[in-house]
Amino acid sequence: MRLLDVLLVALGGATGSVLRYWLSTLAIAHLGTAFPWGTLGVNIAGSAAIGVAAGLGLQGEARLLLVTGLLGGFTTFSAFSLETGALFERAWWLGALYVLASVGLGLAAFSICYAVLKK
After folding, report:
1. What's the DSSP call for residue 33?
2. 84 is in an annotated binding site
3. Binding residue per annotation — 75?
């Protein structure tokens, strides 16, 4: 493990985490807290971005910075799990809707971006 690799992952991760925080805060300010729109949006955007990265075939230092670091810090599966549990406690259908939207739209975003860039 090279120091440069660790620094690239750390820089990307810190940037991705700050972007996630900013977007989630923005979503709460505009859409409220009744549904985790920020996390849903971040996970869909992250899925699209990783589709772009895969479609471009990122390798080496660019992959460490952007995929492992930035997108690893940006996407929020642990927050997704917590919010899903909270939604299921409120109403089973709300939790189910969130899971279906997150997974379905995330996979769609990835697939579209990947397919466009692989042409």
Report:
1. S
2. no
3. yes
